[in-house]
Amino acid sequence: MSAQTITFQAHSLNPAEVVRVYRHDSAANNSLPPDSVLLRFLAAPINPQDLMVIAGRYPVQPHYKHVGEPIPGYDGVARVERIGEGVSTLQVGDHVIPRAHGLGTWRSEAVVPASSLLKISNKIEPSTACLLKTSCSVAYLLVESAKNLHPGDFVAINAASGSIARMAVQFARLRGCPSICIIRDREDVESVRQSLLSQGAHVVLTESEFEKGGVAAACVEGKRVMLALDSVFGTSGQHLAALLSTGGTFINYGSLGGASGQIALTQELLFWKQITFRNFRLSQALSAYPEQAQVQLLNWFVELFEQGQLVAPPVHTVEWNNGEGLEEKIRETFLKQGALVGYPKPVLQFESV
Which family does it belong to (predicted)? Predict the structure, then answer.
């Protein structure tokens, strides 16, 4: 029985040039350290964060290597296949996700300490389960962190077709807060618009529609816009900040517009409107939750999906197969990634599902 692992040979802004797929012997029959488990991965997303890791622009680098090369992938869901004799917190068949960054999920199997994992419900599809942490948790914590957000208040969100933004729209809806969503100009704009409207958005505008004179003012007239969620920064973030009402909060959680972007802190924003500006880091936000509270939060997300109160964001499935051509398929996915910003998130779907 064989296994496969993705690595990257060097830091690069072009991941397609440095990723490699290695086929090697499976660890299925090897002895396990007492504190460890053997995992079979079911699904793993390709997040913007992962591309930053490969580029060398993320502070946490992979903890695991294969043939001396780092194994990327910081999110995913796996099934426990075997457990070490000292493991009491997990059982064979449990579904788990990484507790922290650096686990290396872009591989068919792994042997890791049980303490590096969080157990989750196995009642939802792996393509949804692999988004629980870096999409659902981020979106929920972004919305919940706005203490001055009350039912009837509005939330402004850019890059709103992304997985985190889509979940934020839904969590805001659960708090009684409609969303003003800004999306990129695109061919499928109407289907994306209708999708977001059905999930809790009040209005969905493309960037070109938003920039037309008077449109932004009309969107917020008579409304209390108390939270802006920005994953782009730069000009897009500046426009988003301008929508906020007095006392509102602006949270940046990404830089899809590039690392060189800037937002001008005008007198209107700081003095007249007294806008609060801050950033968001998942690890810092989750640190306020004990382990059991994190597990309960994840399982609550699962319940909401099962009840139909949450709808999983669309994903682009990349079938992981054990035949030839996997490396080329992965490279093609990376080559498309830059052109597909704002489109469904790629998710590696493993053969073992």
Answer: Belongs to the zinc-containing alcohol dehydrogenase family. Quinone oxidoreductase subfamily.
